[in-house]
Design brief:
With 433 residues, the chain is of the alpha/beta class. The protein contains 16 helices and 14 strands. It has helices spanning 10-21, 33-40, 51-60, 70-75, 97-109, 126-137, 156-161, 173-183, 198-229, 233-241, 262-275, 281-304, 332-342, 355-362, 396-402, 417-422; strands at 2-6, 25-29, 64-67, 79-82, 114-118, 142-146, 166-169, 193-196, 313-317, 346-350, 367-368, 381-384, 407-410, 426-428. The chain has a six-stranded parallel beta sheet, with helices on both faces. Strand 13, helix 16 and strand 14 (426-428) form a beta-alpha-beta unit. Helix 1 packs across helix 3. The protein is globular and about 70 Å long. It starts with a strand and ends in a 5-residue tail after the last strand. The relative contact order is 0.09. The mean pLDDT is 97.
Length: 433
């Protein structure tokens, strides 16, 4: 099938490459000419495991192309995916300006029947607006389908290739059949393709993300209570996770969730609730708890230094919002760094993949280290913010030797308290003794 994917970001690039890998002819479109120029030269603008090989192979075999020419890409395609960003507006709603602009451009380019697929995470009713915008520009036949994406950054290629489920919201059989055919190669292991009406499909994505975010905030609140009453959240978590009705995923307390999805999607769903007279009270609390969690961490650090961190120097391990990505959108590290800088502290940071992003966000307001040990030189404390694999089992003697004092604030509970303390460290974590 000939496919156009509009928006070549974390989602569009993975979606385009994976569809090319299954034999389709794919053109990835973006209005960021610099990004497209880099991709054409083989430079991948994001870090995502497995993606460079996939892109390289499919470009070489002629199935994957990049362009800024939306019109040309749409004209050649039978299916057009919209995968542009939908960031948060000041009211908390999703900013749909890019989706709308693309819909109008698609309308202008239509030259025969096509399926237009909203892959971006968009509020209920957006596919309908997309249809109206396209209708204004053309008399050609087309269908608009909602096909939300559930991939996780850091495991995006794997998730796309072996999805838990595919959700397709279509109002007619013609478009539904085309999507079924397109996804068939990815569903050989028996994962379901769930067909629904368009509005329901749009809702599934928000409900899923909101629920996962709720699990994290719930555990963060439980961990805060554990601290207050002297319980150990690790064992509480394991005791909960062993219950098959609960399961183990998304029960890890920490410095709060971040990233390009949970914060904006919970806000957007809460806003949809407010607009439709159905306040999402649980969701409002999920967000409020999350907003506080990074500040609780900062307060603990500052509290250790008798509420004065002026001229204290901190080593920060991890900038990305989670491991295996360079993405720092809404990352807890940003809140933590900004708070500590405002209180007069200095910071050296290290992240395996997000150093360029860090430099873009903080500039020369913080220092950057070439590796995690160099980061520690002269530090008054180590703050562990992102649980990258390479931070899990470090050489604690080297850590101790580099620091001004052996003090660790573990924002992800990756170390074993007893062990760390036996090595002579003062050790703080989340919800544990
Ligand atoms: N990142 C994730 O893990 C994830 C997972 C599932 C769903 N989503 C959703 O997918 C959508 C895209 O997310 P992302 O993380 O890939 O965003 P992104 O910011 O990485 O990528 C969006 C791309 O769209 C391009 N773009 C914007 N306006 C355009 C236009 N008018 N024409 C052409 N290109 C344009 C941008 O230049 C950018 O490259 C969002 O709605 C997001 O919520 C993201």
């Amino acid at each position: 099938m000939n496919i156009a994917v509009i928006g070549t970001g974390y989602v569009g690039l993975v979606v385009g490459s994976c569809f090319a890998e299954s034999g389709n002819e794919v053109v990835c479109v973006d209005n960021n000419a610099d990004k497209i120029a880099k991709l054409e030269k083989g430079i991948i603008p994001i870090y995502e495991p497995g993606l460079p090989d996939l892109i390289e192979r499919n470009v070489r075999d002629g199935r994957l192309k990049f362009t800024t020419d939306l019109k040309c890409a749409v004209e050649k395609s039978k299916v057009v995916f919209i995968a542009v960003g939908t960031p948060t507006t000041s009211s908390g709603a999703a900013d749909l300006s890019a989706v709308h602009a693309v819909a109008t451009a698609i309308g202008k380019a239509l030259n025969g029947y096509k399926v237009i697929v909203t892959k971006s995470t968009v509020p209920v009713g957006t596919a309908e607006t997309v249809r109206k915008l396209i209708c204004k520009e053309t008399r050609e036949e087309f269908d608009v389908v909602s096909n939300p994406e559930f991939l996780k950054q850091g495991a995006a290629v794997d998730d796309f290739m072996r999805p838990d489920r595919i959700v397709v919201g279509a109002d007619g059989p013609r478009a539904a059949e085309i999507l079924r055919e397109l996804y068939a190669p990815f569903l050989r292991t028996g994962s379901p393709i769930l067909m629904s009406d368009v509005r329901t499909a749009e809702m599934v994505k928000y409900a899923a993300n909101a629920f996962l975010a709720a699990r994290i905030s719930f555990m963060n609140e439980i961990s805060n209570l554990c601290e207050a009453v002297g319980a150990d959240v690790d064992m509480v978590r394991r005791g909960m996770a062993a219950d098959s009705r609960i399961g183990s995923a998304f029960l890890f307390p920490g410095v709060g969730y971040g990233g390009s999805c949970f914060p904006k999607d919970t806000r957007a769903l809460a806003q949809t609730g407010r607009e439709s007279g159905t306040p999402m009270r649980i969701l409002e609390a999920v967000e409020a708890v999350n907003n506080e969690q990074a500040f609780r961490f900062v307060n603990r650090v500052v509290g250790h230094f008798n509420n004065n961190v002026e001229n204290k120097h901190f080593a920060l391990w991890g900038l990305s919002f989670k491991p295996k990505t360079n993405d720092m959108r809404d990352a807890p590290s940003i809140k933590i760094v900004e708070q500590l800088l405002a209180k007069g502290a200095t910071i050296t940071a290290y992240d395996p993949e997000a150093m360029d992003e860090g430099r873009r966000i903080f500039g020369n307001r913080i220092e950057y280290a070439a590796n995690n040990y160099e980061c520690l030189n002269g530090a008054d404390a180590l703050l562990l913010i992102t649980e990258w694999q390479e931070f899990r089992n470090p050489n604690f003697d080297r850590i101790k030797a580099a620091m001004r004092q052996p003090l660790i604030f573990d924002g992800r509970n990756i170390y074993e308290s007893g062990h760390i303390r036996s090595l002579g460290f003062t050790y703080y974590s989340i919800g544990r003794k």
